[in-house]
Write a structure and sequence with these properties.
Pfam family, one: PK_Tyr_Ser-Thr
Strand content: 15-25%
CATH class of one domain: Alpha Beta
Protein name: Wall-associated receptor kinase-like 13
GO molecular function: ATP binding; protein serine/threonine kinase activity
Number of helices: 5
Largest sheet: 6 strands, mixed
GO biological process, one term: cell surface receptor signaling pathway
Keywords: ATP-binding, Nucleotide-binding
Radius of gyration: 20 Å
Order of helices and strands: EEEHEHEEEHEEHH
Strand order of the largest sheet: 4-8-9-7-6-5
Structural class: alpha+beta
Helix content: 40-55%
Length: 190
């Protein structure tokens, strides 16, 4: 048996060695590792957990009943992984970007979110690299998004947040943005 590139030759016939998910895992995993090495040299950061496509499929009940949010950029499912509720962000409908651009965007999110540790920013737990566009596994926020809180979930209910709480939310949001723009950029530049 002779191995050449990604094909195996046996009795003069070519046979595909890697399944698509293995190819995506290798391709996306290599790019993620390269980005992490660049960003995290010598830092003590929590490693990113890599989930298999099968684990994600099981956690989301085959991507069906636990759909929690649709947007123009991604679809987010609620699931349970490692005995905790998570939000799983998957590729959404095609936008005017190449697959390579989408993969790079998701891998940048993984790398940057690993550096962020702030109480007002959603935590990043891991990702799945076995599909063409990687999936992100994030902290599940049971009360919904800030947009939902201010405008009502799916715009169905009116906001019941007092002006005092709105000012507090605006202040905490500004702290989180400041943290992301200054502290994370400093970590990236070290």
């Amino acid at each position: 048996m002779l191995y050449v590139g990604r094909e195996e030759y046996q009795d003069g016939k070519a046979r595909h060695v890697f399944e698509a998910k293995e190819e995506y895992f290798i391709q996306n995993g290599a790019m993620l590792l390269e980005k992490q090495i660049t960003c995290n040299q010598g830092r003590d950061t929590e490693p990113i957990k890599i989930f298999s496509a099968k684990e994600i499929q099981q956690a989301t009940n085959n991507y069906d009943p636990n759909l929690i949010l649709d947007s123009d950029i991604a679809t987010i499912y609620k699931g349970i992984l490692d005995e905790r509720e998570v939000a799983i962000k998957v590729k959404g409908p095609p936008i005017h970007c190449s697959t390579e651009t989408m993969v790079d965007f998701f891998l940048q999110q993984v790398t940057i979110k690993q550096l962020i540790n702030h109480k007002n920013v959603v935590r990043h737990y891991g990702c799945c690299l076995e599909i063409e566009i990687p999936m992100l596994v994030l902290e599940f926020i049971p009360n919904g998004t800030l947009f939902d809180q201010l405008h009502g979930q799916h715009n169905k209910i009116t906001c019941r947040i007092s002006w005092l709480d709105r000012v507090r939310i605006a202040t905490e949001t500004s702290y989180a943005l400041c943290y992301m723009h200054y502290v994370v950029i400093e970590k990236l530049n070290e």
